[in-house]
Amino acid sequence: MFPNERMEAHPMEAWIDCDVFPGQFSGEVAVTVRELSGKLLSLFASKADVDFPVDELKSRGQAKGHIRVEIVEEQGQLAMVRLPRKMLENGQHITVKISEIRQEA
Amino acid sequence: MILSNVEIFSALDEGRLIIDPEPSPRIPDLGKEAECPYDTHSVDLRLGNELSIPSGGTFAYDHTQPGQLSKLLSQNSQPRRLQEDQPFRLNPNVFVLGITLETVGLPIIQGRDTCLAARIEGKSSRARCGLLVHFTAPTVHPGFHSPLVLEMINLGPVPILLTPGMYIAQLIVEEVKGIPRQLSLNQFHGQKHPDGT
To answer: Which residue numbers of B have CB closer than 8 Å to A's CBs?
Structure first.
């Protein structure tokens, strides 16, 4: 039996911290996120899914920001979240601490 | 099961398939049959007005080192904006990234028995000139919502002009039986081996 069969999953929108860099196309940005283990992972995301200071990204070539995620499941202090796009390293889900999740960008 | 053009129209009307802007006309106009983007079981997509051109260099991409790939790819490529009167000349054996003019969305709608996936494919008229518009990554997964990135290379002997708005690829839409399961924390937590153990 899969764990989800024991509990109702109600995806809920939220935001987590990320680093933002220019993307390869004007509608996207390159993003790095850090998962629970400390490992950095990266993806290209639509600008609509990332909150970041546009001027800072233009001037410095990078900025701190927040990326929209869906909370898929919570367990204790941890949550599995779904990123808006697949990561280049593979997969679309990461585990983060619940305390790192914001309800607003 | 691959969707016929009639099923593609239904999926568009029901919101199970999003293509924005929606290709038109659905029915060929008399005398302008070639302008209809729908074939029996596919819909043509157009090239957007941006390319990303890899810079090259003395470095190598190391896919075993996570975390920086998207940043490195961006840093080592140059954006190029296309104009109708100034197409991009894709020389033989040159690789660039393009992007479709259309955004494609395949929403997963809870409560339904199925959802949609898709594959992007080349067009024979372009392929005969040596143009590949994707390689190794044709799949559009359920839940996806974005323009499609095209991995383009000219394998032919002469240059090919890339003009924004040109029909560049075709989308094949398939039905996925069942609704994909959301992953769960338990599946990955503490994972140490490739098989998830």
So the answer is: 50, 52, 63, 66-71, 73-75, 77, 79, 97, 99, 141, 146-147, 149, 181-189
